[in-house]
Amino acid sequence: MSSPGESLSSEGSSSLLPPCLGLSERNMGHRAGAAWEMEDTKPCMEALEHCGFPGLYLSCFDMLFTEDSTWLVKVSEASPGLACAVPVPVPRMAHGEEPEQCPVIDSQALGLSPGLEGQEEERSLEQVQSMVVGEVLKDIETACKLLNITPDPMEWSSGNVQKWLLWTEHLYRLPQAGKTFQEQTGKDLCAMSEDDFRQRVPQCGDTLHAHLDIWKSAAWMKERCSVGDSKITGGEELWLEADSSCSGQPIHLWQFLRELLLKPHNYGRCIRWLNKEKGIFKIEDSAHVARLWGRRKNRPAMNYDKLSRSIRQYYKKGIIRKPDVSQRLVYQFVHPV
DNA sequence: TACCAGGATGACT
DNA sequence: AGTCATCCTGGTA
């Protein structure tokens, strides 16, 4: 797919927030620590209105597909109950205003350094992830029924776009932007970058772009997983399974790496393109990528040493090589997409 | 210390 | 046979 969230690529590992979160947090903030029941997260506009809730903050969808279990730990620590993993937006703050409080609780402060997270904990987090992912997908489905539009933004007519805009504006109490996108089809919208959105609607363009990203991601995932019997295990696995394993073929390492690279939204923090055209990429977090690969192949003992050995096997085969100017953790696909 | 290069070997499909 | 995991030695930054 058109890699939703490409614009949300890594902002550097120094940030406490995962890259996928950065934009949304910046844009919208949310009610930290609020305890929500799952039932409350249904985007029933009527109920939401009556309750005075602007609606479910769908950007959690982004987060769920990250490997950032740290984030989930943070959220779940922040408030009890499953639904606490679903942030809920507050009315939009003034433009340029920074969120008063970052909802993220540093896991290290909780004595949960990323390297020490137990497998069991990860498993339960995955269960939480899968449940929340399911809820978010249901929410989008409900919205589609309400609006009578398809889940895939690429298929939207200009009328559908207007409906979606109205709905999103209403749900998230955004300034009206419908006129700005008049005559735009879903395809047009999908082709627009975050900057394009911002230029057209300075007040909430980035927010709209973020929400569109979520829809694109959901549509992409639905499409990829509607065929075949790929299991939905939740969170990151869901993404990874959604690709190569849908075909039933064992995944190759180079395919796996490419998949990660195609989802900067989710993995931009651990692997990213340096030059997509030339196929040059950098592994930003070698241990993380190795862990992902190990999990994917059910090899708990996988590490970057072994992974990199496998990458080097590709040298001879002409699949991956070191770029002309060799750099640490930087490789190049011989045949870029 | 982390990364890199590549040989050897065995498991698995 | 192909792919990959694993282990290894030795080199570099």
UniProtKB/TrEMBL annotation:
Cellular component annotations (GO), alphabetically ordered: nucleus
Alphabetized SMART domains for the sequence: ETS, SAM_PNT
Keyword annotations of the record: Activator, DNA-binding, Nucleus, Transcription, Transcription regulation
SUPFAM superfamilies according to UniProt: SAM/Pointed domain, Winged helix' DNA-binding domain
Superkingdom of origin: Eukaryota
Subcellular localization: Nucleus
Domain PNT: 135-219
Gene3D superfamilies membership: Transcription Factor, Ets-1 (1.10.150.50), Winged helix-like DNA-binding domain superfamily/Winged helix DNA-binding domain (1.10.10.10)
UniProt family annotation: Belongs to the ETS family.
Biological function: May function as an androgen-independent transactivator of the prostate-specific antigen (PSA) promoter. Binds to 5'-GGAT-3' DNA sequences. May play a role in the regulation of the prostate gland and/or prostate cancer development. Acts as a transcriptional activator for SERPINB5 promoter.
Annotated source species: Oncorhynchus mykiss
GO MF annotation terms: DNA-binding transcription factor activity, RNA polymerase II-specific; sequence-specific DNA binding
Presence of keyword Methyltransferase: no
Subunit details: Interacts with the DNA-binding domain of the androgen receptor. Interacts with NKX3-1.
InterPro entries given in the database record: Ets_dom (IPR000418), ETS_fam (IPR046328), Pointed_dom (IPR003118), SAM/pointed_sf (IPR013761), WH-like_DNA-bd_sf (IPR036388), WH_DNA-bd_sf (IPR036390)
Main location: nucleus
BP terms from Gene Ontology: cell differentiation; negative regulation of transcription by RNA polymerase II
Protein name: SAM pointed domain-containing Ets transcription factor
RNA-binding listed as a keyword: no
Annotated ETS domain residues: 251-334
Name of one Pfam family that matches: SAM_PNT
